[in-house]
Amino acid sequence: xxxxxxxxxxQYLEGLLERAQARxxxxxxxxxxxxxxxxxxxxxxxxxxxxxxxxEDEAVPARLLAPVLNVRTPWAWIxxxxxxxxxxxxxxxxxxxxxxxxxxxAGFGETDLMTLVLFRESPLTWWxxxxxxxxxxxAISIGGMGVFLLRxxxxxxxxxxxxAAIVMGALGVALAVAxxxxxxxxHHSNQSYTLPAGSxxxxxxxxxxxxxxxxxxxxxxxxxxxxxxIINGHVTGDVIVGxxxxxxxxxxxxxxxxxxxxxxxxxKVGKNITVFAGSIEMDPEASVGQDMLVYAGQFSMAGRxxxxxxxxxxxxSVDGYVGGNISSRxxxxxxxxxxxxxxxxxKVSGQHQPEVEPxxxxxxxxxxxxxxxxxxxxxxxxxxxxxxxxAAAFLxxxxxxxxxxxxxxxxxxxxxxxxxxxFGALLLIATPxxxxxxxxxxxxxxxxITAVLLWAITMYAAKVFVCxxxxxxxMGAATSTGGVIAxxxxxxxxxxVAVEIPYxxxxxxxxxxxxxxxxxxxxxxxxxxxxxxTLVLA
Amino acid sequence: MDSxxxxxxxxxxxxxxxxxxxxxxxxxxxxxAPIFRFCRRALxxxxxxxxxxxxxxxxxxxxxxxxxxxRPFQAWLYKVAANHCWDLLRRRRIRQDLETEGVxxxxxxxxxxxxxxxxxSEHTSQEVRTALHKLPARSRMALVLRYYSExxxxxxxxxxxxxxxxxxxxxxxxxxxxxxxxxxxxxxQAAAGES
Lengths: 538, 195
Known about the structure:
The complex is a heterodimer of chains A (538) and B (195). Chain A contains 15 helices and 23 strands. Chain A has 538 residues and is an alpha/beta fold. In chain A, strands 1, 2, 4, 6, 8, 10, 12, 14, 16, 18, 20, 21 and 23 form a 13-stranded parallel β-sheet that branches. A ten-stranded parallel β-sheet of chain A has the order 3-5-7-9-11-13-15-17-19-22, with no helix packed on it. The longest helix of chain A has 33 residues. The longest helix of chain B has 22 residues. Chain B starts with a helix and ends with a helix.
């Protein structure tokens, strides 16, 4: 045999040669010193490769030592939390803000619905700061998420075609899964629902119906949605309401929370009342065991409230017993009638001095602060608030630019396509209507809530795309990511200034939202169509 | 692995297949470190290896139903890991198209045994690992599959998507590239000069 080559040597050492050929190689190696030397060297190289590969030179990272069950959790939570915070932020600046303005004009006073949503107990001392807190949390969480993405190598996400869907999906799944967790009794009809006297429900009870009447006992929480709701019976837990009218003549051991145009309280509420209502009427025989946190155009209180009352709204009339303090912003007036008894302090703000009838038993005279409805441009708080609005929107935009630059760029380009306006208008109107219809279908409430939340987040995102486009028009096309970010910053700044123009705020918001929403929807739709086509071809 | 350990592993796998989370936790604790090291050898950065390790275990949970209990579990595990890492590398286009061009025809110079021995003596395992990361993705992957995972040529061919007969050439070329990365171009040059 002639000298064997390197390949044959490796194959011999790895036992890959046929028996006859292997014997031939072996015999040759016995006779040939050169080939024997080559074989030894190759064998040593193989051993070195194995030892270099298998040597435990690095400690296993701590995060890998955690159970695999948590593998996907951090991303889902980070994304969900960030997007949820952004969604909450949007709810305030995009929906609650304009509502607040309109309600205020209609005499309902300023409202702070976010407190209702976020906090189960009534935080009387610091609820003024809730929104600031929410904004800061939104900014921190989105900013933190951005830093995390950058640290972990966000470029990998850039190439992911469905990263936007993952972001939205994480929130959607979190929202969709949550409501189904607890065991409840569920009733749903278009006509009416009555829990007869003597009947007992041993779980939480959820009822959606035209007219609802609870004469029996619910041993759990009661969730009600309908035109008219009457509680004559006994609820041992909380009552969560979304209805045109709610009358409580029976007993609620827990708290009452929600939204209704008319709330009548004739019975007993064991804990707190936290409601957003057009009008609240509390009869002399009514009682509330703890605090009241109310937002109402008209609030007439004639029963007993054992602790504090905090209210915002149009007109407040106190004709009963209050065991603690009263803090009220009453734009249409605040009256303390002769039968009233207030053990704590009374602080009133608004445009009208409080009226106190003779005979009222007060621990101290009301303290009044005059407040205007217009923003106070001379305060630092106003500029801090505006800066937060800008920063949160900027961080939200940054998130889109860094995580999904493809979708971002494409959507900004779609702004030139004026059909986006029509599409956006359609989505703006159709999505909430469809969501309400879905509520009454078999698919159910979680899907509807998810759809509305996604719709809300997308509406907030609309502003970002429009502002980036405006920035681009003013400063020219960007050639780098930094340039895109700079144009977004300028666009957002202009937007925040523009929406301060009296009477134009709502219309600017509307046009921007419709336009951006349409452009984003067209982009997502086209991408979805492309990916569907790819799947079909594959 | 002795028979008792093998039996324990088989039992854990069986429980994991039924969705038993505790069994999954045990399998994870047992194999997370080897899989991380595999990924560390195959992928460019430590962060990539961390992410890939977690993703591989997620994939394992999804694919456990496809595991053939007649085959060694480790072989299947490394197969899944190899496919995942190779997919990652391909997606990032690390594999250069030129890399595959004419490899079969390219002459590989015969090494001079004494020079090769000298080269191996002069370098530590750490230096070999560093040099490994200078190799083209496919060469590195081939060496990792062969010398870390102990895959046979058929399995390597399957994982890398190349013909079975081509695996030997890929591995041989990878060895030459590694020698060059270790600064041993003289191994071949010297041999060429002597021949």
